[in-house]
Specification:
Strands 1-2-3 form a 3-stranded antiparallel β-sheet, with no helix packed on it. Helices cover 15% and strands 25% of the residues. The protein has 2 helices and 3 strands; from the N terminus they run E-E-E-H-H.
Length: 72
Amino acid sequence: MTVVATLNPTDDSFTGTWTDNLNGSPESGTVSAGAPVFTAITDYKNHGAYVAANGGGPDAAHSCIGMPDLHH
């Protein structure tokens, strides 16, 4: 299948046409779609579960990286 679609800069929708290469009975049609929606899917219950599963721990939350040292 080949899809030729153009992103509409006004509302991020897509419009265009599609065709297939079926022998003997090719088909075609139009494409009309709204803006893409991106959804992250994970098996983690929460951010803490993600951090723990990736080698982090409580020290990561207490890190002062990038913070000015006001005690010296």
